[in-house]
Amino acid sequence: MALPAVLAAGCANADPTTDSKATGSSSTAPAALQNVKVTGNVGTKPTVTLASKPTAVTKSSTVVVKPANGPVITKGQRVTVDYLLLNGKDGKEADTSFGKNTANFVADPARLMPGLANGMIGQKVGSRLLLGVPPAEGFGAQGNPQLGFTKDDTLLFVLDLKAARTPLAKATGSPVTPPKGLPTVAYDAKGVPTITVPKTAAPKKLVVQQLIKGTGPAVKAGQTLSAAYAGVIWNTGKQFDSSYRSGALLERPIGVGQLVPGFDKGIVGQPVGSRVLLVLPPAEGYGKQGQAQAGIKGTDTLVFVVDILDAF
Length: 312
Hints:
CATH architecture of the largest domain: Roll
Structural class: mainly beta
Distance between the termini: 20 Å
CATH topology of the largest domain: Chitinase A, domain 3
CATH class of the largest domain: Alpha Beta
Number of helices: 4
Number of domains: 2
Largest sheet: 7 strands, antiparallel
Helix content: under 10%
Order of helices and strands: EHEEEEEEHEEEEEEEEHEHEE
Shape: elongated
Number of strands: 18
Radius of gyration: 23 Å
């Protein structure tokens, strides 16, 4: 799994406001990692000096370079970080968020590079970490040629843990009674939706109808949307896509043309936590060309139900 640009240790004795050597962590971190020197204040881009080249680890390890007293990060939380990635082979910088936009990582090895996810779990917000990630828990056997990693190269991360929050698991808020004549949505015991389309002509214009009004901040254009969704074709009622079926949430920028037009228009401005019913005529969906791979014709109207779980 790549980084966004492409994508428990003990306490250190370091003063959190001064430069430090990354040696104050637990005895479980290998000496090669403990002897890496990390200087610079939290919030500014660090300077990293390797004691030996290559610096390699055989299992993921964490050094707490500068400790903090923030909340402990738990599995599944979305963590806002600044990061610097170096190649352990030669210490060269491969990627960074410092001086750019902060990154958001989900602390779950099933959804993020395992060595990176596990390195954050159990650590405290506000800390600066040094992570050593072996190839098997990083880019894997394929490496990452774009970032200069072969299949044998250890990844070295410096992470500043800036914030953490727990995304919603489902829509949460106040129920909204929709007008009659729209598709209806029922949920089974596992929370999987079934959309039933009325036996009437499809609307000619975009329909945006809240089913639950969330209490979170409004989704803004340019944010990355995290959502659970299902979609069916109006004429047939056939499901063509579902995050419940694929097992993967939709996580894409919203309102910037990376999703079909009606999705962008219907979701921007909605509060996080909302459940929204969308009816997209062809022009608001895949247009005259349709989407043959999904079985969608150029004349098909689409129906989505969307749980807005997060926007960042």
